[in-house]
Amino acid sequence: MKWTIAAFCGIFSVVFAQNTQKLTISQCLEIALENNLELKMQKLNMGVTSAQIFQSKANYLPIFNANFNFGRQFGTVFAAAGAIRVDQTVDFSGFNVNSSLNLFNGFANYYNYKRNLAQLSAQNEGAKRIVNTLVTNIMFQFLLLVGDEANIDVTNKRIETLNIQKERLQKLADAGVIDGSELFNINAQIAEEQSNLILQQNRFAQNKLVLLQLMNVEDENIDFIIPEVNEAMVEGYLLPELSSVEAYALENMPEIKEQRLNMTVSRWNTKAARAAYYPSLAFNANISSNYSSFRSPFQTEVLPYFTQMKNNFQQFVGIGLNVPIFNGLQVRTNVQIQKLREQMAEIAINNAVNTLRRSVRSAYLDAKQAQVSYGAVKKQVEAATQAFKLVETRYAAGTQNFYNYLDALNTKTNAETRLNFSRYDFFFKLKLLDVYQGKEVAF
Question: What is the pLDDT of residues 75-99, one digit of tens each?
Fold first, then answer.
């Protein structure tokens, strides 16, 4: 699928406040994509495959080699003339230039070239799959941080509200209007809220650590800027048809393309294995010459170096045919193995399709549920807010006890927490659907 994250096009900017680096979600995505080790490894694998493609083209070229040698032999040597051994030092030298060109090898070169091309395409889709997974994981982790921050914010507001009531009760107790039991109750509740706040802050720190690990960043002196999501971005949004989202994903998502290309790779491997059944035809050429200072007992002198080289100069041109007859069934076994790998690749395609179909449907149902939940929670917040105001007024007038006040406060703040989270929950689930529809992921 097309992968363009709009926010990545600008210059990377970082806001510093009190030595804390503040990052938006787009900047987190950029850092994660730059630092991800799996993605780096995939790119290196693509570099290896590119080199193999170059070599598969070069396999069509002739092979050309040359060698030259010079040596000296000490001790006795056999003299054919006279059939005796003589003691002398012999210098010898020679050169050889040879070339060969593969004319036919069952089209193995062609099959290997096509296999490498398909392999590179599969690895490219694999890189896109890694990007998709990374973006999805970071969005999910950001959503957890949104929920944590919402809980922390609500708990702080609860503590602030309880402290206001505590001050009011303290004044009444000092004036002798009420006894100290209400103060004990509200102090206990404040202590419980402070304990909950510590747990929520710890959970936020843990989720932040996971996000930093996804970014492959060790510096924990980083804060995150939560994107603004207003009601207009949630209310009235029309979800696309599930069938259209699913159809696009099954046709264009990189995990499906990757497995289909792996099937193509397996088929080319099978054809290359079958090529070993065919004879191979090669053109060969060779030129050579040699020199030796050996002198038999009946020779009075040794011919000069270049004279011998000229006299011994040889040339050869020929065509060689190699016909495979029996090779221990190696070719047959290799072909059978490649056929089995084709079947495995087909199963991998079916498995990827089933997994993607479940993921798309789950994401769609989650987005639909989040939208419905947001509308229901919004009504709940309105009702809980009105109820709390009424109880708060009566509690101040002394007609409601502390537990009724606390219950109304809990209902209101819990509803506010769910409303804030459900708004972001729906927003991020829409972004996930954008991934499956091949749309730009921008924040």
Answer: 776 654 455 566 677 888 999 999 9
